[in-house]
Design brief:
Layout: H1 7-22, E1 26-32, H2 44-47, E2 52-58, H3 65-77, E3 81-84, H4 93-103, H5 105-113, E4 121-127, H6 133-141, E5 146-147, E6 160-162, E7 167-170, E8 174-175, H7 183-192, H8 202-216, H9 220-225, H10 233-243, H11 255-267
Parallel strand pairs: 1-2, 1-4, 2-3, 4-7, 4-8
Antiparallel strand pairs: 5-6, 6-7
Helix pairs in contact: 8-10, 8-11, 10-11
The structure holds guanosine-5',3'-tetraphosphate.
Guanosine-5',3'-tetraphosphate (G4P) is lined by residues 1, 58-59, 61-62, 85-88, 127, 129-135, 193.
């Protein structure tokens, strides 16, 4: 599911989220661990002001482990709770439950002092398209989760999923827009496949990906494709087309086919695990 954002759409989403956020204690922000900055919404800190915060570095299975640790440190130092995750796998979910309770411990303690018992923490999942919000909700809520039905104050059509006595989750995630006016950000989003592919020139994207790999993960392209790595990206693309037998009907090398193949293998983590940015 991909989105084209335009101002009207953004205003509506923002307004809805402002309403939903009033009802919750904790914002669970899903990011793509391969681009932990570029996959965030620029307004989220403002939207989620005064809420407990958890950042999920999702798709960590595809990311560079050392760089994921740097990001983990970085966001922790900024006061967020952070979890590295593969949202498709259920086994990390118990840990998340514990982290949620830690993140909200102040509120739990306050309720306890006031004699309020069993008031669950309410959380909502937010993030830009394709970072894994739905996958996370499904894994986290699991089959056992019961929907608690409509309640006053919740945007029409939204429901709470009661995870257990301690945590309730809004069943639909808040979808936010990326910082798409920034070209660097756009390139990174396109590289990991979080932007509408139709608006991209795949040949150019593949060259950018090869440049990135050659600089940051030297040797991985050579290893994957069994070619000689060089600074000349056109020559590199040509070698890959040759090795992978990308030939057009006329019998010539088909660069576009090679480009598409490079993009697919890169996104799927087949060339190497990678992270495209480090904290500054
Ligand atoms: P969204 O709600 O934020 O839009 O994202 P969604 O859960 O739909 O996930 C987008 C794609 O990312 C899905 O792949 C999903 O399986 C994959 N995904 C989510 N979390 C992880 C993770 O931690 N690791 C990995 N490796 N993949 C993850 P898909 O349905 O196959 O879509 P696509 O790959 O064809 O785009």
């Amino acid at each position: 599911m991909q989105f084209q954002w335009y101002p009207g759409h953004m205003t509506k989403t923002k307004r809805e989220m402002q309403e939903d956020i009033k009802l919750i204690d904790l914002v669970i922000e899903v990011t793509d661990a391969r681009i932990p900055m570029s996959s965030r919404n620029p307004d989220i800190d403002n939207l989620a002001k005064n809420k407990y915060r958890l950042i999920l570095l999702n798709k960590a299975d595809l990311a560079d482990r050392k760089k994921t640790s740097l990001w983990n440190e970085y966001y922790k130092n900024k006061g967020y709770y952070v979890v590295e995750l593969d949202a498709r796998v259920n086994k990390g979910m118990k840990n998340i439950q514990d982290v949620i309770l830690s993140a909200c411990s102040e509120k739990i303690e306050r309720d306890r002092k006031r004699g309020i018992k069993n008031r669950p923490i309410r959380a909502m999942v937010v993030g830009i398209p394709n970072v894994g919000k739905s996958t996370f909700i499904n894994s986290f809520a699991g089959k056992a989760a019961a929907k608690t039905g409509n309640k006053p104050g919740v945007t029409k059509g939204k429901q709470w999923i009661r995870l257990n006595k301690q945590v309730e989750l809004l069943d639909t995630p808040g979808i936010l827009w990326p910082k798409f006016e920034d070209q660097e950000v756009g390139l990174k989003l396109a590289s990991v496949g979080s932007m509408n592919d139709e608006i991209l020139n795949k040949d150019e994207l593949a060259v950018e990906i090869l440049k990135f790999l050659h600089k940051e993960y030297t040797g991985k392209v050579a290893e994957r494709f069994d070619v000689e790595e060089t600074d000349d990206m056109t020559a590199l693309l040509m070698s890959i087309a040759r090795v992978r037998n990308c030939i057009s009907k006329g019998g010539e090398l088909d660069y576009s086919k090679a480009a598409a193949l490079i993009i697919d293998e890169f996104r799927a983590g087949k060339i190497c695990k990678f992270t495209m940015e480090v904290p500054m």
